[in-house]
User: Which sequence fits this backbone?
């Protein structure tokens, strides 16, 4: 659907666009649109030319890469934010992207993004911060994959997921287990074994529902330092 002035408030709630000048906001309203996409639809193909910058408004997005018969999930996006910002440098997709669930996306022509970068200093700063956040997240995942064992990665992911959903001790895996295994850098069979091995740490699994009965012990297994750990 095309945007109008009533959508300006919603655009201002998105961190990337909240500091736009009024002329820039009007230009964005004229060129942007909101579209709904079904689950498991490939939006971007790695290596192809890109003409649009997408921002997730609702739903979830998987960023992934493939090489011959191998496939890896790079990130799963569930918060309101733009994704694959790196494509603005050479108008080429560095990774592929698909919807994991039915998703609402804000679509902005890449040519308009380039115009806003040149014309609006506040937007230039905002997109720099977004790129830095995207890089920081990728670096954290890279360090986790290089320095943690598969069980440690799974334990950390569980604690972070519980924190993101209110620290109730119970949450639902927001996508299928194959995607989770790919994101954590393991085969689905290894994920099943690791889930079973964490039962001694108070982890209970029913389908996609996870219950954590001893987060401190789980944090010790993950070797996390930012929450209280259980004694050895």
Assistant:
């Amino acid at each position: 659907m095309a945007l109008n002035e009533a959508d300006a408030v919603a655009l201002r709630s998105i961190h990337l666009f909240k500091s736009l000048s009024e002329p820039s906001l009007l230009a964005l309203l004229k060129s942007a649109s909101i579209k709904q996409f079904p689950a498991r639809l490939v939006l971007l193909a790695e290596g192809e030319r890109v003409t649009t910058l997408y921002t997730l408004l609702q739903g979830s997005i998987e960023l992934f890469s493939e090489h011959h018969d191998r496939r890896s999930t790079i990130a799963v996006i569930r918060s309101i934010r733009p994704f694959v910002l790196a494509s603005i440098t050479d108008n080429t997709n560095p990774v592929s992207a698909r919807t994991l669930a039915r998703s609402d996306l804000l679509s902005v022509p890449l040519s308009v993004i380039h115009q806003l970068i040149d014309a609006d200093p506040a937007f230039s700063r905002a997109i720099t911060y977004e790129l830095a956040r995207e890089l920081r997240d990728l670096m954290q995942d890279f360090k986790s994959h290089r320095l943690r064992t598969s069980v440690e990665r799974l334990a950390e992911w569980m604690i972070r997921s519980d924190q993101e959903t209110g620290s109730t001790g119970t949450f639902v895996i927001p996508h299928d287990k194959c995607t989770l295994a790919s994101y954590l850098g393991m085969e689905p069979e290894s994920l099943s074994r690791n889930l079973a091995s964490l039962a001694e740490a108070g982890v209970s699994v029913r389908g996609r529902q996870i219950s954590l009965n001893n987060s401190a012990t789980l944090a010790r297994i993950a070797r996390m330092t930012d929450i209280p750990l259980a004694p050895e």
Observations:
- The two ends are 56 Å apart (CA to CA).
- The mean pLDDT is 92.
